[in-house]
Predict the 3D structure of the following.
Amino acid sequence: MQQQSRPADVVMLGLGDVRVLGAAEVDGEVELSVETTATREWCRGCGVRARSKGRAVTLVRDTDAFGRPVRLRWRKRRWRCCEPLCATKTWTERIAAVAPRAVLTERARRDACLRVGRDGDSVAEVARAYGTGWHTIMDAVRGHGQPLIDDPARLADVTALGMDETAWLKANRDHHTLYVSGLVDTATGRLLDVVADRTARAVAGWLARQAPEWLARIGIVSLDPHRGYANAVGVHLGHAVLVVDHFHLVQLANRVIDDVRRRVQQQQTGHRGRKPDPLYRVRKLLLKACGDLDTSGWARLAAALTVGDPDGQVTAAWQLKEITRDLYRAATIDQARQALDLLYAWADTSNIPELRRFAGTVRRWEHEILNYHRTGGASNGPTEAVNLAVKRIKRVGRGFTNLHNYRLRLLLHCGGVNWQTQPAARLRGRRPQLAA
């Protein structure tokens, strides 16, 4: 155990060579009167020993202590240069723990950045906790957070890449819905970066800024059937295996069911789906995997299709969805090819436009779909998990209008930042009788 040779009040305060002169309770807060331990100073302009010119009192907010807010009443020394020819006349002392003209100590700024970044609290909430303005806390988040996300070690050891788009700003009369593309390390689930737009140019630009040796380590890229992302990957990651995520393909199959169901019930009833309509009542059962249906579910589904689907079009779409699921359930790539052949035959002979359109999409992405089996089941699931965290930050922030702040908040929360926090040591060891 390391022993501290400094005075106890200096060690407890933890602000370097700053000592506590007194403590009082003011408005329910702890107010500490402090000053530095320095007794001499030299002019920064000429190096001559300076002379004290009294003190000035500054109030600075610090981190909470013992469950109460803390503010420091710092008695800052003012110094004067005794050299008549020196341009430096007077100045006040500075310490590393408090920046000039700052209202927060540096450790309070770090704590504010940690609460906003790691814990996902809103900037306004942290500002209320510290009794400061929104911009004061956001400046602290930028000042301490930007170096963390710019650390090259944060992007190290990436071998599997995933990408997906999310909407960050809703449409209004001035612009359409704005999107960003998130790039995720699917092996660890960390958000690598967020780039504006969801185009090939946006993703290719980000990849072009990465080092060639970093790109060479990427072996697998997972994405949804989006040709723009695929084109960007082909330019800079032509050596990587491109995998169409099974979640997105099954989602496309589910959309086919919804499209066919809406069209059929419109033809049968002459209106959009309503609660008494048979197909509308089983709309969720139609999207459920057949293996998850119980006896009651099968009975409800069969009865609804018998009444509401006389031509069997919805039934054909439902069977296409199950064939798509079988494609990913296949144990070998040969079985997956057989499922693909069955899917093509089923769609081509059905004479249903929605099914044929889906089969055309599958044909264009057939190689990337089969790569799911070649890679042992590579998935873009971690990217979808990051998207959930992204939506949480959007809810906490009540929406964003500044893309830079949006990117900063997301990377601090989901980007695998090394916060370098000090863990608490155990006060007591385990009892011998409890040891395994």
Q: What stands out?
A: Residues 8-147 form one domain.
